[in-house]
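Problem statement: downstream parser choked on a complex file, so we are re-checking the raw output for the (2S)-amino(carbamoylamino)ethanoic acid run. The parser issue turned out to be on our end (a line-ending mismatch), but while we're here, posting the original submission so the record is complete.
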Amino acid sequence: MDVYGQTRSRLARDHALITPDTHVDSPLVGWSNSTSIIHISPEIGARFLQYTAKMGSGGKSGLPGNGVERFIYVDSGSVGVDVGSQSKALGLGGFAFLPANVEHQIEANSNSTLIVFEKLYVPFDGKKVPAPVLGEADNVKGEAFMGDPDAVLQTLLPISPEYDMAINIFTYQPGATLPQVEIHVMEHGMQMIAGQGLYRLSESYYPVGKGDVIWMASYCPQWFVAMGKQPAAYIYYKDIHRDSLTDRQELIQ
Ligand code: UGY
Ligand code: MN
């Protein structure tokens, strides 16, 4: 609680930093015993949704809208996921990719929080549709990012053209940096899941730590340095494998 009207949250045209002190719950329509905090949505200018789903023990998910795909990452507690013929119990660090228009159910085994990303699936010309993915971050091999063993990238979803989103975890040793200021067409939604650091977004530098959410619009200049004594890590979304002119007709007026 802040009684002096102060917060680290910031909103700008091409980015947002949303810190836990500014969270307000909203209902999760179709879910039972669950509420959400919607962090990033089309209302802010994004082309995807990022929210925290807070599930009470025994709570069950509802399905997203027609054509919407969903990715969940277990940030606390444990859930069971059923999709198609597959079932898996997911604890901290467990994740699931649930393709558009494929029925699934998430049931909380204890009070649980999920980091959720959703977007309207943009079909791939090759007719192949993405398959569900159920996994655990601990079992996903990391790669040194651009040769730096202190900046390790784990790619949770297959990098294959039928998947139109990537979800990665980036882990930095204290003092390690994103090796360049990036400016790119892909947008990002991210949540810090460990440690702390300084995020450059456009022309501003923000101290960030576990629980903070960041939105970066297409072309938002971005850079990060990890600080403190523990590794810093964030999970993030980006749109990939689609071309604005041929696949994003809604962007053309
Ligand atoms: O995948 C990415 O674009 C990533 N390197 N960006 C980021 O961490 N801000
Ligand atoms: Mn980037």
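For whoever reads this later: Residues 170, 178, 182, 188, 222, 238 surround (2S)-amino(carbamoylamino)ethanoic acid (ligand 1) (CB under 6 Å).
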